[in-house]
Amino acid sequence: MKLLAFSDLHCDLEQAATLVSMSAGADAVIGAGDFASVHEGLEETIAALAAIEAPTVLVPGNNETVEALREAAAGWEAATVLHGEATAIEGTDFFGLGAGIPVTPWDWSFDLDDGAAAAMFDTYPEGAVLVLHSPPKGHCDGGSDGSHFGSPALLAAIEEHQPPLAVCGHIHEAWGCESLIGATPLRNLGPAGTWIEL
Questions:
Q1: Around 64, how many Cα atoms within 13 Å sit in the side-chain half-sphere?
Q2: Class of residue 195 by CB neighbours under 10 A (exposed 0-12, middle 13-18, buried 19+)
Q3: What is the pTM of this model?
Q4: Per-residue pLDDT for the chain (198 aa), expressed as one digit of tens each?
Q5: Max Cα distance, the chain (Å)
């Protein structure tokens, strides 16, 4: 399966158009959150992406709520919004978990604490591709000052379940980063559009 995956568009409609063009070569598309910027521009960004016809998995970032993303994507037939849920595309399971994890310093942000995030994995189907917005602790989660912003709960879940692939975004300084957690490859995507063979 040929995946086109991206994150953190933040209302970049020009890049959204580029991703639509790129998606013609994809078996499936992943949008790993932050389509909006501080809850603004979500509808316009999703409308620009809705020309993607390949089956598409979306998770909310911390810049939009899951409810707002479901509402914005309601008319996009190819898209499925996941947040603590799974869907299957051509026999491959995808499990999505969005939001800022752990809780961010911003009062406007759509966040989960590590305990709530860990509980979401009760419904994880073994072997599913893991679509996250936030990175796991210590992997593709580094800021420019050397600090790490990822989630211990997400790291523990990946270590336990060993999904065939995990993707994330959220930490802009780590866009393009690749890491390995046990046998699980992890990619911090960014908005450029990343091709992944599954």
A1: 34
A2: exposed
A3: 0.97
A4: 999 999 999 999 999 999 999 999 999 999 999 999 999 999 999 999 999 999 999 999 999 999 999 999 999 999 999 999 999 999 999 999 999 999 999 999 999 999 999 999 999 999 999 999 999 999 999 977 788 899 999 999 999 999 999 999 999 999 999 999 999 999 999 999 999 999
A5: 42
Give the C-alpha separation, 92 to 128, whole Å.
7
CA dihedral sign, ordered 59, 62, 67, 71: negative
Chain centroid to CA 19: 15
Considering its fold, how many domains does the chain have in total?
1
Task: Enter the DSSP assignment of 101.
Answer: S
Residue 172 zone, left/alpha/beta (φ > 0; ψ -120 to 50; rest):
alpha
Q: Which domain holds residue 15?
A: 2-197
- In one letter, which amino acid is 36? A
Q: How do residues 131-184 score in pLDDT, each as one tens digit?
A: 999 999 999 999 777 888 999 999 999 999 999 999 999 999 999 999 999 999
Structure tokens at 167: 């993707």
The one-letter code for the residue type at 118 is: A
Q: What is the CATH number of the domain that holds 67?
A: 3.60.21.10
Separation of alpha carbons 150 and 140, rounded Å? 8
Distance CA 124, CA 139 (A): 21
Of residues 191, 193, 192, 188, the one with CA closest to residue 37: 191
